[in-house]
C-alpha cells in the first residue's frame, strides 16, 4: 500500500511540476499565433492598399484615354463640320460669282451684230451695248445727208443757170438769181458761162462726194459693229503693253569704247 501511495504522490508531484511549463509554452504559442495573425492582417492591408492604388492608377489611365478619345472625336467632328461649312460657303460663293459673271459678262455674237448693222444703221452698236458710238455715227449720217441735199440743190441751180445762159433766149433769165441785184453782165456772157459751168461741175462733184461719204459712214458702222463684237473677248490686260524708255548703248572695240544714247522700246505680252 505504501509503495502505491508513494507512486501516486510522485506522479502528482511530477504533474504539478510540469503544469507551469506547459502553460508557459501554451502562452508562448498563443502569443506567437497572435503576432502572426497581426502581421498577416497588416500584410493583407498593405496588399489591399496596393491593389486599390493600382486600380486607381488604372482608372486614371482609362479615364485619361477616354478623355483623349472623346477630345479627338470632338475635334474630328468639329473639323468635319468646319470642312462641310467651308465647302458649302465655297460652293455658294462660286455659284454667286458664276451668276454675277453670267449676268454682267455679255458676249455679243458677231454675225448678229453684222446683220443688225446692215439692216438698221446703229443697231449693231446698240446690240453691242456701245451706246456712246451712236451720236458719232448718227451725226455722220446727218452731216452727210445735209451736205448731199445742199450740194444737190446748188447743182440744180447752177445747171439751170448754165442752160439759161447758153440758150440765148431773153425770156429765160434764171441765171440772174445767182448774181447780185441789178448786176449787169452785158458783154461778159462767155465769162459767166464758164463760171456757171465750173460751179455746176463743182457742186456735182461735192454731191457725189457727200453720197460716197454717207455710204462710207454706213460701211464704217457695219465694220465697227462686227469688229467690236469679234474683239469683245480679246485680252486687254495690263500685261499687254508697250513701253518707251531711254537706253544707253555701249559699243566696245579692241581700240576704243563708245557710248551711245537712244530710246528703247519693249513689248509685254
Average predicted confidence as pLDDT: 76
The succession of helices and strands, N to C, reads HHHHHEE
Number of helices: 5
Distance between the termini: 153 Å
Helix content: over 70%
Number of strands: 2
- Biggest sheet record: 2 strands, antiparallel
| Residue runs with pLDDT of under 50 for 5 or more positions | none
The order of strands across the largest sheet is 1-2
| Overall form | rod-shaped
Rounded to an integer in angstroms, the radius of gyration calculated over CA atoms is: 64 Å
- What class, by secondary structure content? mainly alpha
The percentage of residues in β strands lies in 5-15%
Number of domains: 2
Amino acid at each position: 500500500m505504501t509503495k502505491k501511495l508513494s507512486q501516486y504522490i510522485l506522479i502528482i508531484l511530477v504533474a504539478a511540476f510540469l503544469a507551469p511549463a506547459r502553460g508557459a509554452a501554451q502562452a508562448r504559442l498563443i502569443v506567437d499565433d497572435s503576432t502572426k495573425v497581426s502581421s498577416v492582417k497588416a500584410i493583407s492591408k498593405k496588399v489591399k492598399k496596393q491593389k486599390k492604388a493600382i486600380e486607381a492608377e488604372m482608372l486614371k489611365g482609362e479615364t485619361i484615354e477616354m478623355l483623349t478619345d472623346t477630345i479627338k472625336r470632338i475635334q474630328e467632328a468639329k473639323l468635319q463640320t468646319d470642312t462641310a461649312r467651308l465647302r458649302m460657303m465655297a460652293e455658294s460663293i462660286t455659284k454667286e460669282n458664276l451668276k454675277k459673271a453670267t449676268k454682267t459678262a455679255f458676249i455679243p455674237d458677231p454675225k448678229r451684230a453684222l446683220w443688225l448693222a446692215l439692216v438698221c444703221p446703229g443697231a449693231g452698236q446698240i446690240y453691242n451695248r456701245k451706246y456712246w458710238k451712236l451720236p458719232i455715227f448718227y451725226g455722220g449720217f446727218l452731216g452727210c445727208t445735209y451736205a448731199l441735199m445742199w450740194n444737190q440743190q446748188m447743182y440744180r441751180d447752177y445747171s439751170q443757170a448754165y442752160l439759161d445762159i447758153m440758150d440765148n433766149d431773153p425770156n429765160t433769165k434764171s441765171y440772174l438769181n445767182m448774181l447780185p441785184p441789178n448786176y449787169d453782165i452785158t458783154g461778159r456772157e462767155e465769162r459767166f458761162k464758164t463760171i456757171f459751168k465750173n460751179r455746176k461741175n463743182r457742186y456735182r462733184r461735192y454731191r457725189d462726194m457727200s453720197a460716197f461719204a454717207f455710204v462710207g459712214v454706213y460701211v464704217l458702222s457695219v465694220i465697227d459693229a462686227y469688229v467690236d463684237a469679234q474683239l469683245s473677248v480679246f485680252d486687254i490686260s495690263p500685261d499687254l503693253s508697250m513701253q518707251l524708255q531711254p537706253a544707253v548703248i555701249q559699243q566696245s572695240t579692241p581700240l576704243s569704247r563708245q557710248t551711245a544714247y537712244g530710246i528703247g522700246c519693249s513689248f509685254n505680252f
